[in-house]
Write a structure and sequence with these properties.
Distance between the termini: 63 Å
Strand content: under 5%
Order of helices and strands: HHHHEHHHHHHHHE
Number of domains: 2
InterPro entries: PAP2/HPO, PAP2/HPO_sf
Keywords: Membrane, Transmembrane, Transmembrane helix
Helix content: over 70%
Pfam families: PAP2
Number of helices: 12
Largest sheet: 2 strands, parallel
Structural class: mainly alpha
Shape: elongated
Domain Phosphatidic acid phosphatase type 2/haloperoxidase: 155-270
Number of strands: 2
Protein name: Phosphatase PAP2 family protein
Strand order of the largest sheet: 1-2
Radius of gyration: 28 Å
Length: 287
């Protein structure tokens, strides 16, 4: 339009008229073919390999009543809120060298007095299991095995995403805060000069145990199994935290911050899983 008017070959109204004419022709041709084109688009989308994979292996639905869904939502918000509050309080204490950090030295001294050859061996084993080499391998095996056994990818993907989120958060927060670790002469399993806050070992253990417990137990109806599973997960988190404190690599507030971050991650997992999979059904008999 601009070129024809600029070169003096047409008036501007000539070009506008041509555009309107072409729009009319396009609509006249499209109208009788619109339904056929839409059906073809839908068939193409439905038969696409990725769409087939997604519908078969990623889409997961479960039916719950409105009350159960509400409980899951409240649980998600509670986990995220509690974790955010406790992490903020811990962070402010670390930055201000007061508050909760007053427990760091007493707990460290108590653990130093409790050291023994047998207990040291146990704590080293725990540190290795929840360390940066063994734990990723465990997560990989669990996710792949879970997906193959259940022939479904939704929950393994959630677990892998939660673990990756924890790693990223630990790196960002650690480098931003830059807290020093306890004295090197207290470390029993080699020297570690990286940042202390938060504990990557504890965050990884908490994410893995708590998220796995939720993803497994949320599909079970047994209250006893749910209680036992959560108890075992919490025991594992406590043991992971004790191992890092006992071996002299972290302060107590480092571990508390890690657990707080993990609560936020778990809350996000519960919220996403509930939004994505839960379909509300009315109890039989209600009209």
């Amino acid at each position: 339009m601009f070129s024809r008017t600029y070169l003096g070959a047409h008036w501007l109204t000539d070009t506008i008229g041509a555009v309107l004419l072409v729009i009319g022709i396009a609509l006249a041709i499209w109208a009788p073919l619109a339904a056929t084109l839409e059906d073809e688009r839908r068939r193409s989308r439905a038969s696409h390999p990725w769409r087939t994979f997604y519908d078969r292996y990623v889409v997961e639905t479960r039916e719950l009543d409105a009350g159960s869904r509400h409980i899951l939502r409240v649980t998600a918000v509670t986990c995220m809120g509690t974790g955010a509050v406790f992490f903020t309080l811990t962070l402010l204490s670390v930055l201000g060298a007061g508050g909760v950090t007053t427990i760091d030295v007493p707990v460290q001294e108590w653990l130093l007095e409790a050291r023994s050859p047998v207990l040291t061996t146990v704590m080293i084993v725990l540190a290795v299991v929840f360390g940066p080499i063994a734990l990723p391998m465990i997560v990989l095996v669990v996710c792949v095995g879970w997906g193959l056994l259940t022939r479904h990818a939704w929950r393994p993907l959630l677990l892998a995403g939660a673990m990756a989120t924890g790693v990223v958060l630990a790196q960002i927060i650690g480098r931003t805060i830059g807290r020093e670790r306890p004295p090197i002469d207290l470390m029993l399993y080699g020297t570690d000069l990286t940042f202390s806050f938060p504990s990557g070992h504890v965050l990884g253990a908490a994410d893995f145990l708590l998220v796995t417990a939720y993803l497994v137990l949320s599909r079970r109806s047994s209250v006893r199994a749910t209680g036992l599973g959560l108890a075992l997960a919490m025991v594992g988190v406590v043991l992971a935290a004790l191992s890092r404190l006992y071996l002299g690599y972290h302060w107590t507030t480092d571990a508390l911050a890690s657990v707080s971050i993990s609560l936020v991650v778990v809350g996000c997992v519960i919220a996403i899983d509930t939004w994505r999979t839960v379909r509300v059904v009315e109890p039989v008999g209600r009209g």
